[in-house]
Amino acid sequence: MTGCVVLFPVAVTFFLTWWFVQFVDGFFSPLYAKLGVDIFGLGFLTSVVFIFLVGIFASSWLGATVFWVGEWFIKKMPFMKHIYSASKQISTAISPDQNTTAFKEVAIIRHPRIGEYAFGFITSSVVLQSDKGDEELCSVYVPTNHLYIGDIFLVNSEEVIRPNLSIREGIEIIVSGGMTMPQAIAPLERASHKNQSIRLDRIA
């Protein structure tokens, strides 16, 4: 059992890596096969170079314009626009170059009842206007099936707990089923106060 426990994550890692290499290699391998070139890994390297060149082209003004026109056509299609919008939201959220459409912060809300909490991501904020006055609400996306399916809750901004976790750490916690959960989580306010007290102690 100890051997299985040790070898299982190693086997899964190598299996997924091998599957990924074969999957990416399959994009250009048929083209090389028609040319009579049979070198394993050449399609994978070509795919990596192609993705790199697409990234450089998309970073330029001309590339951004071309991709904007392409997005405009896709968003006009009835069924494809929903799939594209959802996948783009996820890719934007985990990309290193985050913008206003990405997940803002990791959030912890009380759900579904008192004493239980749920992990989520703050996506936007809205002001609810009522007879009692204006109330600022945070739109919290709580994934129920990894990242691409979830529920949206409007929670009072004062009741949202903002832990000292980055967006990437929050995604890792959800994807891993909570196995990467740190042993201690503190709100940002408490963490900032703790850092200030440490600095004051050092000065003293």
TrEMBL record:
Highest taxon of the lineage: Eukaryota
Q: Which gene encodes it?
A: LOC109719426
Natural source organism: Ananas comosus (Pineapple)
Which protein are we looking at? Protein LIKE COV 2-like isoform X2
* Keywords of the record: Membrane, Transmembrane, Transmembrane helix
Q: Does the keyword Cytoplasm apply?
A: no
Which PANTHER family is this protein grouped with? COV-LIKE PROTEIN 1 (PTHR31876), PROTEIN LIKE COV 2 (PTHR31876:SF26)
**Family matches, as Pfam families:** DUF502
- The residue ranges crossing the membrane are 39-70
UniProt cross-references to InterPro entries, sorted A to Z: COV1-like
Key word Transmembrane present: yes
Q: Which GO terms describe its cellular component?
A: Golgi apparatus
